[in-house]
Amino acid sequence: MINVAILAYDGCWGMGVFSATDFFRIVTLLEQHLGVAQSYTVRVLSVDGADIRLASGHLIRPDAALNDTDNCNLIVIPPLEGIRLAQGFEPDPQTLQWLAARKRQGARVLAMTTGVCYVAAAGLAKGNLLATHWAFTRQLKKRYPQHDFVAHQSFMHSEGIWSSGSLGGGFDALLEMLAQDLGDHFAQLCATHLLVSAPERLSPILPGHRNHQDQAIFKVQDWIEAHHAEAVSLAQMAREAGLTERTLKRRFQLATRLSPNVYLQKVRIDKAKKLLLSSGMSVKSIAYEVGYENVSFFVRLFKTQVGQTPGEWRDYGL
C-alpha cells in the first residue's frame, strides 16, 4: 500500500488539498471498476492535528497530526495564498523537520505552486529547478537564493521532488507518479477520467522532457502540443522559436533529450492513447485526429513506441 500524506496548513488553498484527495479517489474508483486491489491510502495532516483555516476562511478537520504518520511514500504540499507569502509567511519549523526526515526516508514530494516554499525552507532540492506560479518566481528567489525557481505551466521533477506551476501541473505530476507506480495504461485511463479537460487536450504524460530552463524550447513544446494534429514541419517549429532549424535541433535535443520530430511523434501517440481509452472512435479516425493520414504508419509507430497495437492498448486490462 502506498501512503499519501497531504499537508494542510493555515492559509493554504483548499483546491490544492481537495484536488489531491479527489485525484486518489478517482484512482480508487478505477481500481474497484477493474477489480484490482486498492493501491493508495490518503490522509490529510496538520502539524498538530488541529483544524486548519484555509485561504478561503473555511475550516477543515485533518485526519491526523504529522507525528502520527511516519511512514509516507508521497507528500503533497498544497499552494499557499500568495498574499501571505508577500507578507513574510514562514513555514512552521516542526513541519520542515518532519518533511526533511520523510524525504531522507525516501518519500516523494509534490509541491504545488507557492507550496514550494516548504521545499526551499527545508533545504531540499538545492541547485535544482523548482516550478512555481509565475507571479512569485522573483520573490521566492530573493528569499531562497540557493534555489532556482522557474515559471512553468506544468511541472518539474528532480531527485524525488515534483513542483508545479499551476493546478493542472499538479495533476500532470500526479499522473506521472501514477504511471511509475501502476503503469502507463492505468495513468492514461485515470487522465481520461479527471474531467478537468477533454481527454485529447490534457497534457501528455512524457516524463522528464520539460526539466530545463530554455524558454524558447518550452514555447516550441507548447506549440507542438497545441498543433500536433496539423502537418507540422521543422521549419514551422524553428519560426515559432525564433531560431534557425539547426539551432532548434541542437537546443531541443539538449533540453529534452529528444529530437523535435520524435517529440512530436510522442505527443501524437500520447493523444491517441487517451482517445483510444475515452472514445469509441475507430483507429483510422484516431490516426487522422492526431495528425497521421497513413493509418498503417500510425499503427506501426504506435506498436513500436507502446509495444502493443492500438486495438490491444484499448482492450488491455479491461
UniProtKB/TrEMBL annotation:
Entry-linked Pfam families: DJ-1_PfpI, HTH_18
Residues annotated as domain HTH araC/xylS-type: 218-316
Record-linked SUPFAM superfamilies: Class I glutamine amidotransferase-like (SSF52317), Homeodomain-like (SSF46689)
Annotated GO biological process: positive regulation of metabolic process
Protein keywords: DNA-binding, Transcription, Transcription regulation
Gene Ontology MF terms in the entry: DNA-binding transcription factor activity; sequence-specific DNA binding
InterPro entries membership: Class_I_gatase-like, DJ-1/PfpI, Homeodomain-like_sf, HTH_AraC, HTH_AraC-typ_CS, Tscrpt_reg_AraC-type_HTH
Signal sequence coordinates: none
Protein's name in the database: Helix-turn-helix domain-containing protein
